[in-house]
Design goal:
Blueprint (H helix, E strand, L loop, with lengths): L2 H10 L5 E3 L8 E6 L5 E10 L6 E8 L5 E6 L3 E9 L9 E9 L5 E10 L1
Antiparallel strand pairs: 1-8, 2-7, 3-6, 3-8, 4-5, 4-7
C-alpha cells in the first residue's frame, strides 16, 4: 500500500481525531492537537504512526501552568495500536493538558484517535 493510500484509508475509517504529515517527501510538517484542561491520571488512545527519519511523534503533558513534559515518543512504526499510559500527577496539581506533537520532513504521517482521559 502506498503512503497516500494508507493515510486515505485510515482517515476514511470511523472518524480520526487528528492526522498530521507533510504533503510530499520534500516538505516539512509540524502539527499539534491538545485536550481540554482537566486533572487526569490515565490516558488511552489509538495511534497509527509511520516512521522515516528525521520525524518523531511526541505525547506531552503539562500540569497547571508548567512546561509540557514528554511522556511518550514515537520513532518507529506503530500501526493501529491502542496505548494506555499512567500519568504521574505532581502533588497539588489541579489541571492537566495532553498534547500530541508531530514533527516531520518526509512523506509519512501520524494519526491519533479514540482519546480517553481517566480523571483523577
Amino acid at each position: 500500500m502506498t503512503t497516500g493510500m494508507s493515510r486515505r484509508t485510515l482517515l476514511m475509517s470511523a472518524a480520526a481525531l487528528a492526522a498530521a504529515g507533510p504533503l510530499a517527501a520534500t516538505t516539512t510538517a509540524r502539527a499539534a492537537a491538545r485536550t481540554p484542561k482537566v486533572l487526569v491520571i490515565g490516558l488511552a488512545y489509538t495511534t497509527h504512526y509511520r516512521q522515516e527519519a528525521p520525524q518523531k511523534g511526541e505525547v506531552l503533558v503539562s500540569y497547571d501552568k508548567d512546561t509540557p513534559a514528554v511522556v511518550k515518543t514515537y520513532t518507529a512504526d506503530t500501526v493501529s495500536k491502542t496505548e494506555s499510559l499512567t500519568l504521574q500527577v505532581p502533588a497539588g496539581a489541579t489541571t492537566a493538558q495532553v498534547r500530541f506533537r508531530y514533527t516531520g520532513g518526509n512523506n509519512w504521517f501520524w494519526a491519533v484517535d479514540g482519546v480517553t482521559l481517566t480523571p483523577a
